[in-house]
Amino acid sequence: MKNSPSICQWYLSSLLSPVSAAVGEAIILHYMDDALMCAPNDDLLSHALDLTIDSLVAAGFELQEEKIQRMLPWKYLGLEIDASGASHKSVITWKDPQTQQWEKDIVEVEGSPQVAELAAIVRAFENFPEPFSLVTDLAYVAGVVSRAEQAVLSEVSNSALFNLLSKLVNLISHREQQFYVILIRSHTDLPGFIAKGNRRADALAAPVEMAPLPDIFEQAKISHQLLLQNAPGLVRQFHLTREQARAIVSMCPSCQQHSLPALSAGANPRGLNSCEVWQTDVTHIMSFGRQRYVPVSVDTFSGAVYASAHTGEKSSDAMKHLIQAFTFLGIPKSIKTDNGSTYTSKEFRSFLQQWGVEHKNWHPLLPDRENCQLQLKAKPPVMVKDPATRETEGPHDLITWGHGHSCVSTPSGPKWVPAKWVKPFIPKTAKPPAEAPQVASAAWRKRKRRTLSF
After folding, report:
1. Cβ(283)–Cβ(296) under 8 Å?
2. Which residues sit opposite 34 in a β-bridge?
């Protein structure tokens, strides 16, 4: 039930309390939407049941007639427990020594799977007086057969089970030939004809497995190919990062004329434990005045940050910052920095070696440290192979490139092509004009006269 269990229990108790007071000796137990009643005699029990039904119907409850059971509770509850024996088939299989073919004997038997297999065991002892091996996967039957010889049976309420046990005890007690009971685990990966047959039956009875769905990123790519959502729509629908959504849009051929590749060049590995991998960099805060250079160290695992203000960004300032960071955060195993002069000097490397810290130059120095801007101003001419005609065209101006694709400016507009189809345009230089024979002969005679006069 979707409402509160306490409210449901309280409400049913308020409805059944008058009924319990009216019937006297009858006992009514209820929990949530289940109720159990018992009484010394059938008349009082029927009266209590009628009052309960009237009270619940008057309160607005809808009762299903098939759920109202008028039998002993252990029999009613046992109906579902015994549902595995719904087929009621007792099966014997054996290999005929004459034809070497497998034979079978199938009989419909009412009762649980244990009763059905016990009936098969009895038929096996009746039909095969010669020595044989009995193979079963039911521990209950194997235990009964091993203890049946000269056993004394007590009276049981189930007459069919009593008859089967009596026949089994009689057959085993008067049997002259030997037999052997083999108990195996049928549902296993071990080799054997029984396990092989059970695996085949399990495969047929098992529900059909659905093909696994692709991951979220692949689902977003498939959805964009069909619906052409923009990047914010992919973020809201598939809970991607903006970078992933923009990358999906930029890789779509239909959207290339509107977007450029936005996926970053690489990932930034993180540490698996605290103080395993640090990343150190310097930022400038102009409001700090003379101490505007602020080195920042971040533990990539825990996210702990330490920053300190300095008057410069030399190696000595970086070493002072790291000593303070070691005091607060601990000594890391490795530090990642850019390849600027601050972190590539001999003093800084010697400092890290003394502390036993591995140094990695992970990301390049940003040009904006030198108060300049990175802009793509040059548009070199390139030659492009047309994917349709396979002919080289150009020269065209190169707009941008990345991730295996290039964007070139064509007379029809910007065009995305694979980077392997783009080659630089190298203009052919013209050869100097050849001299006339008369001019060459006169120049040679002139050089010769100069040599002789010298």
Report:
1. yes
2. 31
5-70 is classed CATH 3.40.50.880: no
Distance CA 107, CA 91 (A): 7
Beta bridge partners of 154: none
Q: Which of 383, 389, 380, 381 is nearest to 421 (CA)?
A: 383
CATH topology (fold) of 216-255: Arc Repressor Mutant, subunit A (1.10.10)
The 3-state DSSP class for residue 415 equals strand
Q: Which fold has domain 87-204?
A: Nucleotidyltransferase; domain 5 (3.30.420)
What would the pLDDT profile of 16-58 be if each residue is shown by its tens digit? 888 888 887 788 877 766 778 888 888 888 888 888 888 888 8
Predicted confidence (pLDDT) at residue 84 exceeds the cutoff of 70:
no
Question: Which single residue is written with the structure tokens 């409001």?
Answer: 287
- Contact status, residue 394 vs residue 411, Cβ threshold 8 Å: no
What band does 97 get if pLDDT is binned at 50, 70 and 90? confident
Ordered alpha helix ranges (H), 149-227: 159-173, 193-205, 216-227
Amino acid identity at 345: S
DSSP assigned state of 93: E
Q: What is the CATH number of domain 277-370?
A: 3.30.420.10
Tokens of 224: 């964009």
pLDDT tens for 277-328 read: 999 999 999 888 888 999 999 998 888 899 999 999 899 999 999 999 998 8
Residue 134, helix vs strand vs coil: strand
- The number of beta carbons lying within 10 Å of the beta carbon of residue 297 is 24
Q: What is the pLDDT of residue 186?
A: 62
Structure tokens belonging to residue 329: 């955060």
DSSP class of 275: T
